[in-house]
Amino acid sequence: MMPNITLSIPQELYEIMKKHKEIKWSEIARKALWDYAKKLELLDAFLSTSELTEEDVAKLSTKIKEAVLKRHLK
Questions:
Q1: How far apart, in whole angstroms, are the C-alpha atoms of residue 48 and residue 52?
Q2: Residue ranges per structural domain of the chain
Q3: 40, 62, 66, 74: which sits with the fewest CB atoms below 10 Å from its CB?
Q4: C-alpha angle with apex 18: 14 to 24, nearest 5 degrees?
Q5: Span 3-31, mean pLDDT?
């Protein structure tokens, strides 16, 4: 037996889901959660061997944000 969870969703989404009762919404949610969890596991594995410090990450983050801002201001 699997544990159950409860999700809060916007009313608009609920209305769409009600129109399509033939779809197994719990299966779609389960797949989306698995996909996200797998990405987290991959990220955890990658980070476990990283030699970057928090300061390095902060510097990279700032450079990336500046580059994105420049691109959007053009």
A1: 10
A2: 11-73
A3: 74
A4: 100
A5: 96
